[in-house]
Amino acid sequence: MDANQIKALVQEQKVFFATNATRSIMFRKQMLAKLKTAIRQNESRIIAALYADLNKSRAEAYMSEIGLVYQALTYMEKHIDQLSAPEKVRTPLFLFKAKSEIRHDPYGCVLVVSPWNYPFLLTMQPLIEAMAAGNTVILKPSDYSAHTTAVIARLIEETFAPAYVAVVTGGRQENEALFHQPFDYIFFTGSPAVGKLCMQAASEHLVPVTLELGGKSPAIVDESANIALAARRIVFGKFLNAGQTCVACDHVYVHESKMPALIHHPPAFGARRHARVDWQDHQRKAFRTRTRVFERRKSRLGRPCGRGDTQNRADDLAAKRRNARHGRGNLRTGPARFAVREFRNTVPAAGAKAASARLLLVFPQRRPHSLREGKHAVWRRVHQQLRAPSFQ
Q: Which of 64, 111, 146, 381 is deepest in the core (most CB within 10 A)?
């Protein structure tokens, strides 16, 4: 795409933005849902492209790129109403008759330039945020990740109109032509050298720019460090994405007393064995645990008690006196006033009425006297009541 075509594309997106179609919250939600559907349909192509460009396995591609894109989409779908709502602020005294608020309006036509080390994540994540804010977007993926760039271009062309979201492919000439266009915002991720050219070109039109650049990322291992844990984390961060991460550890500052142990530490990943998990065994153990808890609570609370029972009234009075003596307040123990939920297990008996085993989950029907006496204090009282002789 030459400079004239790029200029025409930018103008087309500015015209579409002027129609105010992207300001609608419903429109933004629909476009985000449309993007998520397109990514799911092309997920296998994305994984294959990442493997062709960076030799990423399926698990690593999903963990470091595709899964994070899904997470960003889900977050924006849930919070777009809150993020787009006006924010009320205090009005200055000399404007006391007025009301003040901060409105979050879209910039307009946005340029997103992404690098080659995370070609899918660092292209889609700024795109999602720009779409959620109500902007039109032009994407410029890196030409070094050719397979992923081709998949992204095909995905966007099949999903959105060029006046809303478009992809420009190419190398340095296309980058230079894009940097000199009158965008409303530029989001650049890449090297400091290209970032300087981007900001210099954007200054011609006073375009606001966000630069996400690389740098040095040391790891510091002091004398109090856990060598095994430090070695494992350093190796994981360095070998993730074949070491091509902008914040990957590129040198280590280690205390001289810990240097031999860190250098000669065994491999952090090869020696570790991961046992296979028997989920059916876990479910059986969980079921047995729940059964034991149920039987224990049932043994504590299983004695039937009625509101008209004389013994129950005596226990109620004794509990009141005991609570008053220990400063616990007036807790009532009658099941009709205390029980929240009741479980019955009815067993028919021959020639007699059915025997009923009752388990009462109790909770005091009273409000705390103060803010300090919150839910933890209330549950503590419940446990004290469960341990009382009247419940044994």
A: 111
